[in-house]
Amino acid sequence: MTDIKEFAERYVNIWNEPDAGRRGQTVHNLWQEDARYLARSIEAVGHEGVEGRVRTAYEKWVREKGNIFRLRDLDGHHDTIKLRWEMLPAAGGAVISVGFDFLVLGRDGRICTGYQFIEA
User: Fold this and answer.
1) Which one of 21, 28, 55, 78 is most buried, counting C-beta atoms within 10 A?
2) Number of H helices, E strands in the chain
3) Average pLDDT per run of 10 along the chain, which is 120 residues long?
4) CA separation (Å) from 44 to 1, 5, 59, 65, 111?
5) What is the pLDDT of residue 2?
6) What span, in angstroms and rounded, lies between the C-alpha atoms of 91 and 66?
7) pLDDT for res 9
8) pLDDT of res. 120
9) Strands, E assignment, the chain
């Protein structure tokens, strides 16, 4: 397995990335071509779907509302990573939302399936 701390930091930071080209390249680096990203009301498939999901979240929560996402804690074993993240105002202040993502990695070390759960 790859260095999960570095992998998790790259994963969380993609949601804060203002440059669309960098976001797209990071999606290609972190996710398999036919990967699935699943949240309660969202299913994104493939690089295009994941890029769209990341773009939508960035535009709503970061660009429009001025928040950032950051890694809270993580654990992983046997080609899986469970990471908790939090969203808070970029200018500082109380945490607005907390969630965790459970990532299943393929043989190539990239995400084949990611599940998002919002805790608060």
Assistant:
1) 55
2) 3, 6
3) 85 96 96 96 96 96 96 94 96 94 96 94
4) 24, 24, 17, 23, 13
5) 60
6) 8
7) 95
8) 78
9) 31-39, 42-45, 67-77, 80-89, 97-105, 111-118
